Amino acid sequence: MTHPSLSTRDLTIRFGGHTAVNAVTCDFHPGELTVIVGPNGAGKTTYFNMISGQLMPSEGTVEKDGLDLTRMPASTRARHGVGRAFQLTNLFPHLSVLENIRLAVQAQSGDGRRFFTPVTRLTELAAKAERYLEATRLSDRADMPAAALPHGDQRKLEVALLMAMEPDIYMFDEPTAGMSLDHAPDVLDLIAEIKHDHTKTVLLVEHKMDVVRALADRIIVLHNGELIADGDPGEVMSSQIVKDVYLGNAGELT
């Protein structure tokens, strides 16, 4: 097993007298896609928010490659390679699809902060943006304003922007939520392609069991803010404690 790229140690957050996430310790590794599941109110998104920097924990730590991220804001964590799709990413609605991606490429390269950029460098950046456009199957939409895209294609554009930032850690929170059956496979295929890059670590919050089965190398289960199961997808989802949690919360486990 490789050294963990991302770790949480006793990660805890309290809101008043309520403990939403309680002492969750977990390691995540390159080349591994981990799906975080649990009934509604289990603390999945809150845990995600502490990893990506939207929330600061009451106790515990978040580390990436040994670097303590715990008190860093989301923007600083992004510069250290922690990328989160669908909630962190903001589209520029009146710019074209290609222009959105090009801006992300320039930001990642550092050229976005330079007043003068050589023409040859701009050409290189444009070519890189085109590659992300092609990778996310949006080449035929390149000139459309982002606001004019169907919802499914906006989701694909958000993945393209995240890819353009070249993170080491990819975080997806219910990536197919609100998507049609026609568009969802495209986004899932993109995530599967990212997973195949064994230098990347992928975390996914998801409640659709068909998505979990299709993508997961590993599943962790949260319940009432606590980590109750962690391991191989088949073993975890067939364990009695997980079945009891889902049935006790009127959830589906199929």
Topology:
Blueprint lengths: L5 E10 L2 E11 L4 E5 L6 H9 L6 E6 L2 E2 L5 H6 L2 E4 L11 H13 L9 H17 L15 H14 L4 E5 L10 H12 L5 E5 L3 H7 L2 E6 L2 E6 L1 H6 L1 H9 L6
Parallel strand pairs: 3-8, 3-9, 6-7, 7-8
Antiparallel strand pairs: 1-2, 1-4, 4-5, 9-10
Can you give a write-up of this model?
- The protein has helices spanning 44-52, 74-79, 97-109, 119-135, 151-164, 184-195, 209-215, 233-238, 240-248; strands at 6-15, 18-28, 33-37, 59-64, 67-68, 82-85, 169-173, 201-205, 218-223, 226-231.
- With 254 residues, the protein is of the alpha/beta class.
- It has a six-stranded mixed beta sheet, sandwiched between helices.
- A hairpin with a 2-residue loop joins strand 4 (59-64) and strand 5.
- It starts with 5 loop residues before the first strand and ends in a 6-residue tail after the last helix.
Short note summarizing the structure:
The chain has 254 residues and is α/β, with parallel strands linked by helices.
**Number of extended strands:** 10
Task: Assign the structural class, choosing from mainly alpha, mainly beta, alpha/beta, alpha+beta, or little secondary structure.
Answer: alpha/beta
Radius of gyration: 19 Å
Query: What is the name of the CATH architecture of the largest domain?
Result: 3-Layer(aba) Sandwich
